[in-house]
Amino acid sequence: MRVRRGAALAAVAGGGAVTTMFVGLVTNAVSAQSHWPSWLGWLQKHPWLSFVMLGVVTAALTAVLAVLDDRRPPGQNPEPVSRPDDGSGPPGAALVLRSLPRDTSAFTNRSTELESLVQSVRAAQDTGEALPVHVIDGMPGVGKTAFAVHAGHVLSERFPDGQLFVNLNGHTPGRSPVQSTEALASLLAAAGVPTQQIPVGDDVGAVTEARAAMWRSRLAGKKALLILDNAASYRQLEPLLPGGSECLVLVTSRKRLAAQEEVVLPVQALPPDHAVDLFVRLSGRPADSLDRNTLEELVRLCGYLPLGVSLLAARLRHHPTWSSEDLHGRLVAARDRLGELRAGERAVAATFDLSYQDLPLELQRFFRALGHYPGTDLDANVGAALGAVTVTVARDQLDALYDAHLIDEHPGSRYRLHDLLRDYARGLAAEGDSMDHVQAVQRVGTYYLAALAAANEHIVRSGAVAPPPPDDTGQAETPPLESRTAALSWLEDERPNILACIRRANSLALYDLVIHLAAAMAPFLRQAGPWDQAVGLHRTAAEAARHTGDQQALAGALTELGVVRRFMAAYPEATAALNEAVTQYNVVGDRHGKADALNQAGIVWYLTADNDASARAQTEALALYREVGHPLGQANALADLGMVRRQTSDFDAAVEAQSEALSIYRELGDRYGEANSLRDLGVVHCLMGEYERAAQRHREAFALYEELDDRVHQAYALVELGVVRRLTGDLVGAREAHTQALEYFTELGERFGHANCVRHFGVLDRLSGDATTAIRALEEALEAYRELGSRGGEAASLGELGAARTAIGDRIGAVDAFEQSLDIFRELGDRCGEAEVLTHWGTLLRTSGDPGAARRNFEQALGTAQAIRCPLEQARALEGVGRCDWVIDGPERAERSLREALSIYRHLGVSASADDIERLLVSQAG
User: pTM for the full model?
Assistant: First the structure.
C-alpha cells in the first residue's frame, strides 16, 4: 500500500515538473526576451514540437495515475459519489413492530441470563416497585436481539397491554441511527395517537420533549413491553423510556450504556459445550455421527457466536455428503482468505464467506444485491426489484437465504439482514461496478413509485388526481392492495424504507427519483404525518427540483410544503411557500396547479382572519378550476369560500357556495366532502335561526362520518348538534351530545374539539344557574384556545366568561373579558359574535343600574344583527332594548320592542326566552 502511494506521489511530482517545463517552453516559444539553454533552446526554436510533447506527457501521467488507482485491493472500491449524511437531508423514520418478532429457532441455553431477567421482573411486580430498564449488551453476533425477543415471548403474558419492537439502527451499516424524535413519532403512531396530535415544530429539542411527554402519558398505568433494539447511546433511547412504573423496557446495544436505574445483562459468547449443542441441534445430524473434537474446533473458529454457529450448522445440514471434517477444512480455507481482518471479525466473517461461497451463483448475485438496499427490512416485491427478478423467484431466493441463516424473517413475510451480514453484503456489493448501486436504487425506487400509485388509488379522495407514476414503472410487480385499510397498512410498513430510499437517491444525485417519490408519498403523509417528517421530505424535493431546474416539480413540492405547514399552524411559512408555488405555476403556465396553490393559500388566510385575501384567492381558484374543468377543485374552492362568507356573517352567500359545493361532491361520490359541506351548512343555518334544518344537516353529516369511520368529525357534528339543542331550550339533550363528543375527543387526543366541548359545558352551566362552575370551565377552555392559537375560540370563551362573571356580580372582570372578546371578533370580521358580546355587555350594564348605557349597547347589537340577518341576536337585542325602555320610560314604551322579540323567539322555537317576555308583559297588563 505504501509503495503504491509513494509511486503515485512520485508520478504526480515528476509529471508536474515536466508539464510545467513544457508550458514554459510554449509560452516563451515566440519570445525574443528569454532564451532557454542547450537542447531546450532547440525546442524553443520548434514550438509546435513543444505542444506535442506537452500532450504526450499529460496523457502518460493520466494513464499512470489510472493504473495506480485501479490497483486497490478487492472490496475497497469507492461507492458512487454521494453527499455525507449530516442530518440535514431527507427525513427518516423508525421501524416499529406492533408485535414481537418471531422467536428464533437458533436460541440456545441462556438459562442464567434469562432467569436473572425473569427474577428481576417478577420481584419488581410482586413488590409494586418500578420496573428498571434492562440493558442487554455484548459484541456483534452474540445474540443480543435473539435473547431480547425470546425473553419478550417468555414474559409477554405479564404485559397484556401490548408489545412493541423498535429498531434504532444504532450500528446498522449504511443507515444513520434513528433520531429520538423520529422514533417517538413512530411509537406514538403505533400506539394509536392521531397524526394531528403528534407534536411538531422546527425546534427539534422542544418537539422531542413534547413527544416524550405524550409518550409517557400514553403509557401511564399500562403494562406494556418495549424492546429498543440496536441502541447507539443512552441519549438516543432516554426520551423513549416510559414514565410509568409498570412497563418493561429491554434495550440491546453493542455499547455499555451506563445509568443508575438500569439493570445490565451482559450477553457473552456461548460456553463451548452450549455452542456445540446448538450446532448439533441445527445441523440435523445425530450427535454420535459427528466428531466431538472437530465440532469443538469448529465452534471455536467462529468465536462461539450464535450467528456463526447457526451458519456453519446450516451448511452441514444442506450438504448431507459432507462430514464435520469437510466443513472444518472449508472454514479454515475461508479464514485464510480473510486474513487481513482482525481476529474477532475474521471469526464471524469466515462463516459468512463459507455460507456465501456455498450458494448457487444466482443466489450469490441476489445476496450481493441486498447490499445495495437502503431500507431496513423488505418483502418479496422489493427483493424482486433489487435482484431484477420476478416476485416468485425473489420469494424463493429469500426463503433460501433464510434457510441458510443468512437473513432473518419478520412478521408479515418480511426479511431483514443482521447488521454484520448487511455489512458483509455491502462489502461484496462494493466489489462490483459502482453503477450497480445506482441502478439498484433506481430499480427499488421505480418499484416503490408503482406500488405508491396503487396505494394512492385508495388514499386520495374521489375526484382527486393522484401523482401519476413515471412511464418506466409498468413492469414492476406491486403487492395486492385491494382496500384503503390494506393500502394504509402497506404504507406504514414501508414508510421507513421509502424514506431511506429517498435519502439514498438524494445522496446519489438521483433528483428526478427524489421528486417523484416525494410527490407519491404526499397523499399519505397529508393524512398520516407526522408533519415535520413531511416538511423535511418536501423541502428535499424542492431542493432536488432546484438542482434539476424543474419549475413544475418545484411548484408541486412548495404547494405540499405549504399544506403541511398549514397543518402545523406555521402560517407565515405556509404563506411564503404557497405564494412561491403560485409564482412558479405562473411561469410554467399550469392553471390547475396554480388553482391548487391559491386554494391552499386561501385556507391559510381564512385561518389568520385575512378574510378579504382569502375570498380573493378562493374566487380566483374557483375560476381557474372551472377553466380547466376540475370538479373536485371547484367543490373545494366553493366550500372554502363558503366558510369565509360564514366567518364574515354573509350567511346567504355562505349557503349558496356550500350548497353548490355539496351538489358537486355528491355528483363525484366524495362522501368526505359531502359530510364537511353538510356540517358547515348546519352551522350557517343555525346562525340564521333555521334550527330544524341545521339539526337535520348535522345528523346527515354525522351519519356520513360514521360510514367513513371518522370519529373526530363525528364528534364535531355532535358538538354542533348540541349547540342547536341548547339554543332551542333542550339543555339536557345538549349536554348529552357534548358529553358524547367529549368522550371521542378525549379518546382521540383532539385538543381543539375538547376545548369546544368544555366551552359549551360552561355555557350550559351558566344557563342552569351554576355560574361558578361555568367560570371554571370557560377559563379552562380559554387557556386551551390560547395554547392552540385559536383566536375565534378565544373570543367566544371570553364573551361567555364575561356573561358568567356578570351572573356573580364581577363587573370589572366581565368588562375586561367583553373588551378583549370584542377586539378579537372585530379583528376576525365575525359580526355575529360581535353582536352577541354587545348583548351580553348590555345585560351587564342593565343589571348594574345603567339602563341608558345598556340601551346603546343593545341598539348597536341590533343594528349589527339586522345587517347580517341573524334573527336570534336580533331578538336578544330587541329584548334588551325593551327591558331598558321598561326601566327608563315605562312599560308602554317597551312593549313594541318586547313584542318584536317575542315574535322572533316564537318563530325560532326559543320557548324559554319567549315565555320570559310573555310573563313580563302579563305582569304589566295585570
Answer: 0.73
